[in-house]
Structure formats: C-alpha cells, structure tokens
Specification:
The chain is α/β, with parallel strands linked by helices. It has 18 helices and twelve strands. The protein has two domains: 244 residues, D-Maltodextrin-Binding Protein, domain 2, CATH 3.40.190.10; 204 residues, D-Maltodextrin-Binding Protein, domain 2 (3-Layer(aba) Sandwich). It has a five-stranded mixed beta sheet. The chain starts with a helix and ends in a 10-residue tail after the last helix.
Length: 476
Amino acid sequence: MEMNRRQILALAAAAATMPVIAACGGDTRQRQQATAPVKTGLQTLDPNRPGNETWPFAEAEALNDSLTWPRTNVPEPAAKVTITVATTSDIIAEVRNLQFDHFFRKRHPNIEIKRETSTFDGFLTKYMAQAAGGSLPDVMYNHYSWTQNFIANRILTPLDDFIARSPEFAADDLPEAGLAYFRRDGALYGLPTDMAPKLLYFNKDLFDKAGLKYPDESWTFDTMVETARKLKSGSGATKIYGFSPTAKPAPDLATVFLLPFGARFLSADETRVEINSPEAVRTMSMWLDLLLKDGATPSLAEELLLEKVDPWKSGHAAMHINGAWIMTELAKQKAFAWGATHVPKGPKGRFSPAVGSALVITEGSRQKEAAWLYIYEFLSSSGYRFRRISAPARQSAWLPNAEALGIPAETAELVKEILADYATSEGVLRLPATKKAVDTAKPIWERALLGKIDVKTALDEIAAKVGPLLAENQIA
C-alpha cells in the first residue's frame, strides 16, 4: 500500500488529536476483563498449554470445546500463512488471547498468528508511523474515534464481501447503533470488540438511609437533579454527593446530557459548534446550579482531593452515569449495594451512547481471507463467550457472560434492552478534531465551575475557540 504525502499528514494529525475517551466524561471502561490478579507472567507460559491462575488452561479448553464456532464459505489457506494481529491489552487479557489463538490454530492448522501488543496510549502513534512507512499488521485494533480517518485514507478493507460469504455471521446479533463508527458510504470496515451503553447507577444504601425510592424508568433529569439535592449531606471526609461527577465537555457530552433537551455540543456533521445555543445554555446552567448553588456534585477542588478516591466507587456519591463496562468491578466490590436503571429522559427523549472499539483488516494485508477467518471467530458470539468480557457487542453473549462474571441477570437484560431501544451513536464525537475540541473547551468550562464566569460567557467562548478547530473534520 502506498500513501501520498497528504494521507501521511492526515494520519499524523489523527495521532495528535486522538481523543482518550477513557479519561473523559466519567468513562472508566475496563478494556480487559478478569476475575483475579495474574500471578504468572507471559514468559513462563507453556506454549502448548497456555494458562495461569486467572485463566487455567483446563478450564479454557473445556469452555472452548463446549462452544460452537461459526462456519464460513471463505476458504482456508492452501498452505501455511502467518497473520499479524495488533491489539491493545494487558497481561490478564493477553493470557486469554493466547489461549484463543492456541485453539484457533487447532481449527485452522495452516494459519499461524504473530501477536503485537501495545498499551492503548501508545497504540495509535506506533501504527501511524507504520502506516506512513507502508507497513501495517493484517488485523488491527481500532478505537471508534480513529476509524473514519483510517477509512478516508484508504487504510482499511471493507468487510461486506466477507460477511456475504459467511452465512452464520448473524448481523441481527449486533446492535446497529454501535456500528455507525465503522461505516462509510454503506460499507462496514470494522467489527466491534466490545459495545455498551451508559446507565444510571445508584447507591442503594444511601437511598435507603434517606428513605427515598430507587431511580427507575420513569425518571426525568428534573427528578434526578431534585433527588441529588435531597441526597447531599455532610461535609469534609464524610460528605455525600447526590451525583458525581458534574457534566463537562466530553466526546459523549451531547448524547448523555444535551440531546435530551434538544441541544448539542457540535452539529451532526461535527463542523459547527452548537454548545452556546439557548437550549444548551439552559441545560448546562442546570448542572452549574447543582454544583455552585446546591453543592450536590463535587467541586473541582474536591475532585482534585478525591482524585484517587472516586466518590462513586468509595460510596460517597448516590448516583453516577457510566457504561456497562464497570459492572464487573461493581459486582466484585463489597463497599455498598448498588443498582442500575435507564438514564433519565428529557423533554426530547432518552439517549444513551453506544460506544465500542473494533478489529479491522488493513488494505495492505496479503492474507485478507485468513485475517477474516480470525476476526470472524474472535468476534463471534462464541468468541465473546470464550473471552468473557463484560460488554460483548453480540447480544447473545450478554447473559452467559454476565452469569460467569457475577453480574445480575436483570442488569444484563437491562443493557440488552437499552441497546435495542434507544442507545445511539448520535451526538458522539468521532472525527479528527475531537480531542482538540474537548481539550479547548474543558478549561473554559472549568472557569465557570469555579464561578469566575457565567454559563453564557463560558459557552460563547467555547464556541469561538473550538469553531476554527473543526476544519480538521472536513475529511474527504
């Protein structure tokens, strides 16, 4: 694959403007799932029986043998081939990945797998450099915010032909809302490695102590805000916040907090700033009042003091909006009883972002059919069940994975309901200027959180400074 100078520069810009979603908007996604600490390093694994205390080989073998792996009309390679698979991972997830590869090779003896594992923070920079040099792995991890730029620069292979030759692909098992990040001009370029909406979590102990009813599907944002005021109590180290954290500029700010009121951060095509519209001003004022007038959410100073003691995780916040991926951690903690329900609705309806990452096949791969066989099984319902992640994109894997991870069945059913009903990619920023837009908006909004400027002044300043950055989103 050859790239011209314009494409190389565009990809370099993508690396510089990558949104680190896990740090934004309360998104603490667990990219890898495990049930216990790892006590065996990868270097000590038996290549013929990879496993450790977290993922015993015998357990993995029994699970693998119990699963039905999907068939495809894409042919097996006639001779030995090697595919390179580049992913983000940690040692916990990597043991499970190595186990998957072990059993995959038994099913496909002519396919060898070379794994490249990188941290999330360094992944994009590393592979942008490889793209500029004309060399990329066959299969590659892709965060949802990167994919449109990769597609525009002809880095990725459309998967539709492979899907058409795979009658057991089960497209209806994948919520369409979470695929929009990986589509362009009707073609699909990535299959999600995970997918989840956001929910409203609540601390049952704090609600019981206050004598208040738990949140449910009937709740509006007005109900939530009023309840947050009632639940605030105490001071200092014993302070209880009604809700945490305060709404701030983030890639999914619009979907969670603005769309319910008919407002947006950016326009639908991400080329104009709309956060200073009258609807947005009214909505963001509600959150500023909850902080400055009511003290029901943590201030910036309190957030700094609590940086290593998250109010929600430590039992000091009554309510919290976050993704389904935190359920594994919640299921294991013993600090408080918790529940989850639908996010509140506003005058314009109820919205929850469906977000996830994907595996893609690079255009320069010489082993595209073998690469498809790999991602087809890795991202099948059986593949998700084997890997036991808490936010599987395939809905058929949700209940068995929830049972294996100790997540209540009714909560897993709730997630499936949200994904089928109102989860969406609408309003979630994904184009190249995202990180610059969020990073520019945050310090301006923080001045409002400190009471130094009013809401309208803050949002007008955000619009003025973010607007020129959006030229980067005019991708071909």
